[in-house]
What we know:
alpha/beta, Rossmann fold, 5-stranded parallel beta sheet, 5 strands, globular
Amino acid sequence: MDELIKNKINDFWSKKAIKTPNGQWVRWWQSPHIIRTINKKVSGVACNGFSQGLINLAKEHSKGRTYKRGISVGCGSGNKEMNLIQQGLLEEFTLYELAEERIKAGRKLAQQLGIEAKVNFIESDALKIETREASYDFVHWNKALHHMMDTEEAVKWSHHVLEEGGMFYMDDYVGLPGFSGQIQCLKL
């Protein structure tokens, strides 16, 4: 990823409001009914909590294992990753994000939760920095994989850095990759 693209990503996500001035935005992920419905479709249980259905499946699959080192790309403020630490699925996370304002918010949240020693925020492109094979036992993608310029390459990278027996955890949009196909879709 070249510097121009990285800077554009940083500018967009750093300026995008983390909270609205009046606090009145309603997003789908703020609706308890929608969250319970999604969790039921994912796990069979209409539970509360964003991505909790998938978290429950991950816990079930791991059979009580606590993963040692997780990595997340495009983590935003890292709240989803910190939730996994708090729920005992992971011990620590390396969190990659390109928007410095999101990182600042994440560091503040980690401090408030008392887990700042368990999260390491890095403002960079993980796919360029993290190249060591089998260096993590948990690779996390949550609402970020579809933003990658080459999703197939990102999944290959995930496999490369994931140690054998580790978990590939992906909760994401599964449609056309990146920014491709929008004009073709409009024509349909």
